[in-house]
Amino acid sequence: MAYTANDYSNLIGMEGFSETLLTNHFTLYQGYVTNTNKVMDTLAAMLKEGKVGTPEYAELKRRVGFEFNGMRLHEYYFGNLDGQGALDQSGKLGRKLAEDFGSYEDWEKDFRGTGAIRGIGWTILYQDNVIGKLFNQWINEHETGHPAGCIPILVMDVFEHAFITDYGLKRADYIAAFFKNINWGVVEGRLK
Ligand SMILES: [Fe+2]
Q1: Residue 162 alpha carbon to ligand 1 centre in Å
Q2: Do the beta carbons of residue 119 and residue 140 sit within 8 Å?
Q3: Residue 151: which region, alpha, beta or left (left: phi > 0; alpha: psi -120 to 50)?
Q4: What are phi and psi of 139, to 5 degrees?
Q5: Its pTM surpasses 0.90
Q6: Of 10, 11, 12, 178, whose CB is crowded by the most CB atoms within 10 A?
Q7: Opening angle at CA 110, ends 102 and 155, nearest 5
Q8: Could you report the per-residue pLDDT of 166-185, keeping only the tens digit for each?
Q9: Confidence of residue 1 (pLDDT cuts 50, 70, 90)
Q10: Considering Cα of 180, then 85, then 113, then 126, what sign does the dihedral take?
Q11: What is the 183 CA–ligand 1 centroid distance (Å)?
Q12: How far is CA 74 from CA 27, 131, 172, in A?
């Protein structure tokens, strides 16, 4: 079954994100969907053709982590935008963040700091699926650093394409704009 790209045109008009930046970003996302299908179809064909064990098969298998996560992480990211207002800190997520980080402010400081790490990738607030603990994680590119089985709660793209059109190298300003547009209802809904 093939993956299809979601429509995120509802995000156009969001404060702090130009239409040019967003439409380019949607095009990049659609490329990951196309490539995920292409890589998976090619691997399925190679399996039928008896090509398992070839270097080509091995390299394409490695590629799945990049393309698939490039697709899915953008869906989490666009999906946790288009909101307004701050998190209600007395709600389920607010209380859990305070419990695991000492305070909401310390969580935010850690999340923003993780997002400022040099390099291209993602910053993700994860929930450990075994003990329920929340923690902020740096993901290198799309595929390196995901904690096995954990649940992405809040996902922020920090590849340069996510901000350079509007913010140049001022990543912290982009992160501030990201925070203004978080859809906390969606984010809280991901919490188990
Ligand atoms: Fe992106």
Answers
A1: 5
A2: yes
A3: beta
A4: -115, 125
A5: yes
A6: 178
A7: 115
A8: 999 999 999 999 999 999 99
A9: confident
A10: negative
A11: 18
A12: 11, 26, 20
Rounded to 10 deg, the angle between the 104-115 and 171-180 helix axes is: 140
Q: Quick check: 16 and 84 in contact, CB under 8 A?
A: no
Rounded distance from Cα 174 to ligand 1 centre (Å)? 13
Going by C-alpha positions, the residue among 119, 142, 1, 8 that lies closest to residue 67 is 142
Instruction: Tell how far the Cα of 52 is from the centroid of ligand 1, in angstroms.
Output: 32
Question: Which ranges in the chain belong to alpha helices (H)?
Answer: 19-48, 55-79, 92-101, 104-115, 164-167, 171-180, 184-189
- pLDDT (mean) for 32-54: 98
Quote the ligand 1 centre to 50 CA distance (angstroms).
Answer: 35
Record the tokens describing residue 18, joined without a space: 């130009």
- Angle, vertex CA 184, rays to CA 6 and CA 31, nearest 5: 25
Ligand 1 geometric centre to CA of 1 (Å): 24
Q: What's the 109 CA to ligand 1 centre distance in angstroms? A: 22
Cα 83 to its chain centre, rounded Å, is: 16
Q: Quick one: average pLDDT of 132-141? A: 98
Tell me, in angstroms, the distance from the centre of ligand 1 to residue 142's CA. Answer: 9
